[in-house]
Design a protein that fits this description.
The structure is a single chain. It is built from 2 helices and 9 strands, in the order αβββββαββββ. The protein is α+β, with helices and mostly antiparallel strands. The strands form 2 sheets. Strands 3, 4, 5, 6, 7, 8 and 9 form a 7-stranded antiparallel beta sheet that branches. It has a two-stranded antiparallel ribbon with strand order 1-2. The termini are far apart.
């Protein structure tokens, strides 16, 4: 009697386990791939579409000035942010050249100054390290014509 009861319990356990495997959601035949992550944008453009500014830097309108006429757009934009001065310096060395600017010269340490040009304009990037942040100034000016 005990042997029959043990066999019956064993059969019930095996049958129960077999049913448990099928009680969950059916495995999908198709593999679900998550949608591709959006390309992270690490910069934005303000009034000049060829000068990228790191997202961590915020414009200071009170300390900026923009001049625009029929064919000229020039000015000085000021930004502040918690970005290391060395990182900003390295960022502008690479990103400006990616935008077609030619690096003419730079001054490094203490204050950082980089000068770039394009055929018809020049850009000066000045980076000043503050106690807990960095100040970034972008100066843009048209080149003086040789015909003057």
């Amino acid at each position: 009697m005990f042997r029959k009861f043990s066999v019956l319990i064993l059969v019930l356990l095996v049958a129960g386990c077999a049913n448990m495997r099928g009680s969950g959601p059916e495995p999908s035949a198709e593999r679900f791939d998550p949608p591709p992550a959006e390309e992270s944008v690490s910069h934005r453009y303000y009034d000049f579409d060829d000068i990228p500014i790191p997202n961590e830097m915020k414009i200071s309108p009170r300390d900026s000035i923009l001049f625009e006429s029929q064919n000229i757009r020039a000015g000085m934009l000021t930004f502040t942010g918690r970005v290391d001065s060395d990182s900003l310096f390295n960022y502008f060395q690479v990103s400006m050249q990616n935008e077609g600017w030619r690096l003419l010269s730079y001054i490094k340490y203490g204050n950082y100054i980089l000068t770039f040009d394009k055929p018809e304009k020049i850009c000066i990037v000045r980076i000043t390290e503050r106690q807990f942040s960095s100040e970034l100034q972008i100066w843009i000016s048209p080149k003086i014509s040789k015909n003057l």
